[in-house]
Fold each of these.
Amino acid sequence: MPQGSRPRCKACARPLSHCLCHLIPRLWPDTQLLVIQHPDEASHALNTARLLVAGLVNAHLLVTESLADHPDWVRRLSDSGWRNELLFPGPDARELGVACDTRPRRLILLDGTWRKARKLLYLNPILQSLPQVRLASGLSSRYRLRKVPHADALSTIEAGAEALSLLHPGFERDRLLAPFEALIDGQISAMGEQRYQRNYRDRQ
């Protein structure tokens, strides 16, 4: 451990004094989630993809830029026995919803800035081949510590929670989002209300 660094929880990767594990649920919706995270995001202090996957039994986090390095996942995403869909607001994306297709469903999310998410899509032909779905417009992010590219841009955990809530009525979205809410509140508390108001409030 580098000198001066704080010991961290091995499960949630937060400093031990700010561990979020007691808030992380273990939910098991029928839809499987695969989160493909750009490597630059892996060490980000506000890593919502990690919290999303930790809260779902039926979810996987893959940190990579190229799926060519993960042939097993290329095979899974090519499996016609699964309904694989990419949650990405492309021009041809249709609104996510429940359908009559009885195949097991897997939703793929890209974690990174918009530029990095587009790069992940560009670099991976298997992702380009998947049907794209999007969330309904008009959603508002609770991520109060970033400047969003547009009003309804959501963090990865928020996007996953909204998608699962839509596909599975009664899904416990608030339980999944609880560690995220605590993470944001803790960051705001640490920086102080005045600094938060000065640097972030006007960016929403």
Amino acid sequence: MCRWLAYTGEPLQPSTLILDPVHSVVAMSLNSPLGAEPVNGDGFGFAWYPEGAAHGAAPSRFRSIEPAWHDENLREISRAVRSPLFFTHVRAAGGPPIQQTNCHPFRYENWLFMHNGVISQFAQTKRDLALAVDPSLYPHIRGTTDSEVLFHLALTMGLADDPIKAVGDAIRMIESVGHAAGVKFPMQGTIAASDGETVWAFRYSSQGQSRTLFHSADIPTLREMYPDVERLATFGDHAQVVVSEPLNDLPGAFLEVPESTVAVLDRTGYHHEPFLDAAA
């Protein structure tokens, strides 16, 4: 459906990951071997927390309906800024129209959110799910995607207080409403959320056959494994990437996130936690 990348660590130019790797996110927009669709050309988004921004500050964002591979502004901006945490997403529209408000990442205050996947048969459940969004948050839904409704459901469920529980509660609501409407497998996807300090990366589907998701091994270990790879010197010791597909073919450089798991990444490193149970 889409492809995405999140970075956290020492500040760097986002182009280092968005443009430069052999299998960068922009390259994935043209050719995504592990994706449900090989081409993701229905718009993109790039959002970043500026270097030196105060804790809790809102991120900046640039979105466009142009294909990522064709947009010169993405190249200019990603080379001009530096950021310790950023998201980027390339879209393959699965039904909702191609318009800027439907491009990820979505933003609310200091939170960023993006999704690769689908709420199955969303047209049958959209009304009930949208009406479950807190009335104070509902006006902030600007587009027509299932992903944006999912984000605002998670905000309603307490994303700012307990991100893992809130995303889990939002998905359980989606499954409950979907099952009541006769949808066998209501939820599919990988999700990234951040408050500017931590990245939570979820892999889950009702069917137990989720979209692919990987994150990088820690940089000091990779330097020991590959002392001759000069590119690793670009990254600080705390640099971490979570991405829909590996950015290179170095064995051991990227670790797959298991099904029904959330990967939590911050300056202390990463760890995995069980997330929901597809059989529940």
Amino acid sequence: MTMYTFGWCSEIQQAEKLKDLGFDYIECALVSLNLENETEFAARLPLFMNSPLPVSAFNIFFPGDLKVVGPEVDEERLQRYIYKAAKALNQVGAKNVVLGSGRSRNIPDGWEQNRSEEQFTQLLSRIGEEFAGTGVTLVIEPLNKKETNLINSVSEAVRFAKQINHPSVRVLADFYHMDEEKESLQTLIDNQAWLQHIHLADTGRFSPGTGQYPYEQFVAALKASGYEGMISAECTIRDPETDQRDSLAFMKRVFA
């Protein structure tokens, strides 16, 4: 029996509602903790630590103005941010944190691809070291080309993870971005050893079960990969009253 847990990407205020609906966890934005503002962070942290539903995952790792590639990288600010992130994630008890942050990692015009990849590799290495012993895994999220020009496929993300080869650095597969980039579902099987987290959406980036995405094939590939673990819906909601409930029922059914 394969073990999956289902979560929803939302703000912490939704935790109670998502718990009542039967979700296993909530996935929140790391930037919503306001790590760089001591006063706001101190006020926000208890909401996550005392959440009625475990905050097992976080996304949106970096604020958009904190660049991780290009000529504007502020090493000291970056180092401070990663240190604070590791500590906070450990305190909350998170298992996975998603490194999407398309704006932060976008390669600026005129900046070399090679240098960007070097900077990104150093970043992953730094995060891996900082996360060692915290119980938190960083998962690299491939994003479609409209959102960033660095890492647009699962296989590219895996190439970076392999270079680091650190137990705290793994990869996420996002059905929406895979569909946008027309990435083969075979990549889930080919890169099975590196998969640590899954994001789901459906046509138009709406909630799972409302569109035409080939869910049966996706689930078959994921099962063939032997993946077990967290699966989060990351999507736009049209009807708050029914979308989350219906999507959870759909996800449980299709992954059963």
Amino acid sequence: MQRDGIFAGDNPFQIARDWLAEAETGELNDPNAVALATVDPSGLPNVRMVLLKDITDTGFWFYTNYESAKGQEIAASGKAAMVLHWKSLRRQVRIRGDVVKEDGPEADAYFASRSLKSRLGAWASHQSQPLESRTKLMAEVAKVTSRKGANPARPPFWGGFRIVPVEIEFWADGAFRLHDRFVWRRETHENAWEIQRLSP
């Protein structure tokens, strides 16, 4: 099966990194924005936008409040899916797989790299929980600011998740809606990838 041009390569993570790097030069806003899909305990899907923070050869990384709806749904199922879509490139990458919680040094380092206001906001927000008013939220931020100071540590309820994919699909727009699609699949993380071209 011939895969050349933007689809060439033996490492799907590197292809994804290359596409993201290309998007960073042309996509106007948040080229690392991804739609993250999870399911609730009844099996009802949930999807929301989050920011992808890294693509390594071990998976796709993002950070959130573990007590949020997505955090709880991931904890319950251990699985998630995401899609990166770049309108400027007319391309997308779809990822499905198991999720690993990352609350060690990488999470500490990323939290420390965020702006002070974002770090304080992470402490103040009970993400996904009912909120009486914005005034109440800002009051909580003020309280946290006085308690935590100028260098708050990462909250124990906030950190990283890494999707370890068993499926990665690369999609590029084609003339007359005859798109190019290649999917990389493996049964487990230890298995070798199998690659197929899919009909548009």
